[in-house]
Design brief:
Layout (H helix, E strand, L loop, with lengths): L2 E4 L5 E2 H8 L4 H9 L3 E3 L2 E2 L5 E2 L4 E4 L17 E5 L3 E6 L16 H8 L23 E7 L2 H13 L3 E10 L6 E5 L2 E4 L2 E7 L4 E2 L2 E10 L2 E8 L6 H8 L22 E9 L6 E5 L4 H14 L1
Parallel strand pairs: 9-17
Antiparallel strand pairs: 1-6, 2-5, 3-4, 3-6, 7-8, 8-9, 10-16, 10-17, 11-15, 12-13, 12-14, 15-16, 17-18
Helix pairs in contact: 1-2
Length: 301
């Protein structure tokens, strides 16, 4: 549905004014202006146009983002969906969004095939993506379908006050304590720029809470809650304390299979960004993870 806005503040750039007074991002507004989907007093204008009091801005309906990213038919395990958000169970091995030369067969390609309704705040390569989990990490992922929901969820993740995520991981070694807090800053590994590490300089605060679920001979099943959301945080922290995640191809010195790290985003609780309803989701361990745990259970008997 088209939208009409009567300007109350004057002498502000058109793109900035609309970004501050609508759900649209500034980059999307620029694209809409370029294709005459936004008119000022019935005429096309550039982003740099300074609005004047009582200007009438018409935002037409039907604008479609033109993207080089191909939509791909894909089986997506959707646990919940409404007009504003989706909650999905991402399998291990699936990259979340295009990047680093990989523009096909990512979750984003599948989402674009499934629906045209995805937020665009994070740009053309990350429609709907509010947060991410690593390629070989499985489990719960929250998707935004509208920019309003996306903006609110971004604040949730930034402040960690209205969203809680719990992971399950199998770590190598028998962890001696029932619980632990790992408070160690994370930044780029100075010896390998493709990896992250606990470093003192050029790092950010990183806090992980660990609770032991069960010990096996040579392994420990743990629950992990993130207080911060740094890249590879759990994997880096587990390696740092000497109990790396089993089958991790990057942070564990032992040879890993193609399945990747035994790390699963198991539980998510959050306040719905629009309805304010309390939301709760859990998803079971993937088959490979569960079967390995079953084998450990059997060997212990």
């Amino acid at each position: 549905m088209s939208m009409e806005i009567v300007v109350k503040n004057e002498n502000e750039r058109l793109d900035k004014y609309l970004a501050n007074n609508t759900e649209y991002s500034r980059s999307l507004i620029t694209k809409m202006l370029d294709e005459d989907f936004i008119l000022v007093n019935g005429k096309p204008q550039k982003s740099s146009y300074h609005v004047k009091e009582n200007d009438v801005i018409l935002i037409k309906d039907g604008f479609k983002i033109k993207s080089d990213i191909k939509s791909t038919k894909m089986d997506i395990d959707i646990l919940y969906e409404d007009e504003d958000i989706m909650v999905i169970n991402k399998p291990s091995g699936l990259v979340v969004h295009p990047g680093s030369g990989n523009f096909d067969n990512t979750l984003v390609n599948g989402l674009m095939y499934y629906t045209d309704n995805l937020s665009d705040i994070n740009g053309e390569e990350r429609p709907g993506i509010v947060h991410r989990i690593d390629k070989d990490t499985s489990g719960l992922l929250l998707i935004a379908k509208t920019n309003k929901a996306h903006s609110i969820l971004t604040e949730y993740f930034k402040n960690h006050d209205k969203i809680k995520r719990e992971y399950i991981a199998l770590i190598c070694g028998e962890f001696p304590h029932d619980s632990a807090t790992i408070d160690a800053p994370i930044g780029r590994d100075p010896k390998d720029r493709k990896k992250m590490a606990v470093v003192a300089q050029n790092s950010k605060e990183a806090l992980t809470y660990l609770k032991v679920l069960k010990r096996y001979k040579g392994y420990t099943l743990v629950s992990l809650i993130l207080k911060t959301g740094r890249t590879h945080q759990i994997r880096v922290h587990m390696n740092y304390i000497g109990y790396p995640i089993y089958n991790d191809p990057v942070y564990n010195t032992k040879k890993a299979t193609s399945f990747g790290q035994f790390l699963h985003s198991y539980k998510m609780d959050f306040i719905h960004p629009i309805t304010q309803k309390e939301m709760h989701f859990e998803c079971p361990l993937p088959k490979e993870f569960q079967e390995f745990i079953d084998s450990l259970e059997t060997s212990q008997k």
